[in-house]
Amino acid sequence: MVKDFYIKNMVCDRCIKVLKDELDGQNIQLSHIELGRVRLKIESDDEIQKLGTMLENNGFSLIGSTEEKLTEQVKVELIKALRELPLELDRKLSAHLADALGHEYSKISMIFSFTEGIIMEKYFIKLKIEKVKELVQAKELNFTEMSQLLDYSHINHLSG
């Protein structure tokens, strides 16, 4: 049977590569993989247990509850938004997430805050700070250019 599994802590393309390699090593048939989700051809409950163990050994975990799935989908959408610079959200973050996830923003926000203990906006700011750290290490851009790429209205907002 083909089944979707939602996975916590998948944040980059390397995570996808690690999981592909591990699934091959476990002889679990992969149908599709993307950040936060895999579609597998599972033949037995034993394979599901092997999957869970393999994920735990690599710093991932299976997501069971609907709330955790939605929270992980939010994280994936926010990570995807920061992949391509300049950051181009053609509307508010709330509208972008509501459309992308097919839920009302108030529900998304409430569930995210409850499961993560932080509001989405602060989480997104933390992701943007991590992106700035990457850009600083690359030593290709100055802070003004970074602030423009990450859609800060003024360099002082980035500096703060």
Distance between the termini: 51 Å
Shape, per Cα inertia axes? globular
Strand order of the largest sheet: 2-3-1-4
Q: Report the biggest beta sheet as strand number plus sense, adding barrel if it closes.
A: 4 strands, antiparallel
Backbone CA Rg? 18 Å
Mean pLDDT across residues? 91
Q: Which structural class matches the secondary elements?
A: alpha+beta
CATH architecture of the largest domain: Orthogonal Bundle
Strand content: 5-15%
The CATH topology of the largest domain: Arc Repressor Mutant, subunit A
Helix content: 55-70%
Look at the structure and name the CATH superfamily of the largest domain. Answer: Homeodomain-like
Number of helices: 8
Q: What's the number of extended β-strand segments?
A: 4
Low-confidence stretches: none
The arrangement of helices and strands along the chain is EHEEHEHHHHHH
CATH class of the largest domain: Mainly Alpha
Descriptive account of the structure:
This protein is an alpha+beta fold. The chain has 2 domains: about 1-60, Alpha-Beta Plaits (2-Layer Sandwich); about 65-160, Orthogonal Bundle (Arc Repressor Mutant, subunit A). It contains 8 helices and 4 strands. Strands 2-3-1-4 form a 4-stranded antiparallel β-sheet. A hairpin with a 2-residue loop joins strand 2 and strand 3 (about 35-40). The protein is globular, with a radius of gyration of 18 Å. The relative contact order is 0.10.
Topology:
Elements (H helix, E strand, L loop, with lengths): L1 E7 L4 H13 L3 E6 L2 E5 L3 H13 L3 E2 L3 H18 L9 H9 L3 H12 L3 H19 L4 H7 L5 H5 L1
Antiparallel strand pairs: 1-3, 1-4, 2-3
